[in-house]
């Protein structure tokens, strides 16, 4: 009877779905594996939340995907079964894959590890400065600090949604000025600006993207000069 105990309410279906979707094989292959040994329709029903997951299948999923029950039950954010690896992942916030990669880089003396140390170390200096000035954190110049940090600049670019304001268009004059057509006082003024167009138009999202790309370029140059002097 204990094997039939339902644990569906406790299982994180989002994590089970990620494991199934991340497997480079079909659901039929998963179901046919000796560990699972079930009908493919059951895998699909578990995936969709249409069939309760028993303790028996919780154990099977853990064995098949090589993850801990705590991970599928939402008790930890780290899937690893290795206690030491779990502790490292939880302490650093990095995934098991990243930790293993860094370990290989360190063992073989690959230049990647030096670069990452310097890259993350640069951000760590900024974070330390922020912590030491915690009482006056609101008065600190965040943009300047972020511009000096390649890692945070890259994060800004990756997280930015340039499509958010893509519908609003601006004109660019022959001398490079960006003009909002809605700010024109009259149709004559708007026509005058149109006569000076060198680039047809540009969206707010495109402007933001170009600004962030420029920040990344400047940050890369500064990072290289600092850590790879001529």
Descriptive notes:
With 230 residues, the protein is mainly alpha-helical. The protein is built from 12 helices and 3 strands; from the N terminus they run H-H-H-H-H-H-H-H-H-H-E-E-H-E-H. Strand 1 (169-173) and strand 2 form a beta hairpin. Helix 10 (150-159) runs antiparallel to helix 12 (204-227).
Q: Any descriptors?
A:
6% strand; 3 strands; 230 residues; mainly alpha; 58% helix; three-stranded antiparallel sheet; 434 Repressor (Amino-terminal Domain)
The gist of it:
With about 230 residues, the chain is mainly α. The protein has helices spanning about 15-20, 25-30, 40-50, 55-65, 70, 85-90, 95-110, 110-130, 140-145, 150-160, 185-195, 205-225; strands at about 170-175, 180, 195-205.
């Amino acid at each position: 009877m204990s094997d039939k105990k339902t644990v569906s309410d406790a299982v994180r279906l989002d994590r089970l779905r990620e494991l199934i979707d991340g497997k480079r094989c079909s659901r039929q292959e998963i179901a046919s594996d000796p560990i699972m040994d079930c009908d493919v329709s059951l895998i699909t029903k578990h995936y969709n939340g249409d069939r309760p997951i028993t303790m028996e299948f919780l154990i099977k999923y853990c064995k098949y995907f090589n993850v801990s029950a705590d991970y599928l039950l939402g008790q930890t954010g780290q899937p690893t079964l290795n206690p030491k690896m779990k502790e490292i992942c939880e302490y650093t916030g990095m995934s098991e894959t990243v930790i293993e990669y860094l370990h290989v880089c360190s063992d073989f003396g690959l230049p990647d590890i030096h670069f990452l140390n310097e890259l993350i170390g640069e951000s760590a200096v900024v974070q330390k400065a922020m912590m030491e000035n915690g009482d006056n954190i609101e008065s600190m110049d965040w943009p300047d600090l972020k511009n000096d940090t390649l890692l945070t600049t890259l994060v800004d670019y990756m997280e930015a949604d340039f499509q958010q304001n893509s519908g609003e268009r601006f004109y660019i004059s022959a001398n490079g000025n960006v003009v909002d057509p809605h700010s024109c006082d009259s149709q004559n003024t708007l026509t005058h600006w149109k006569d000076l167009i060198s680039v047809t138009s540009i969206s707010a999202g495109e402007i933001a993207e170009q600004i962030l790309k420029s920040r990344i370029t400047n940050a890369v140059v500064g990072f290289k000069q600092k850590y790879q002097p001529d």
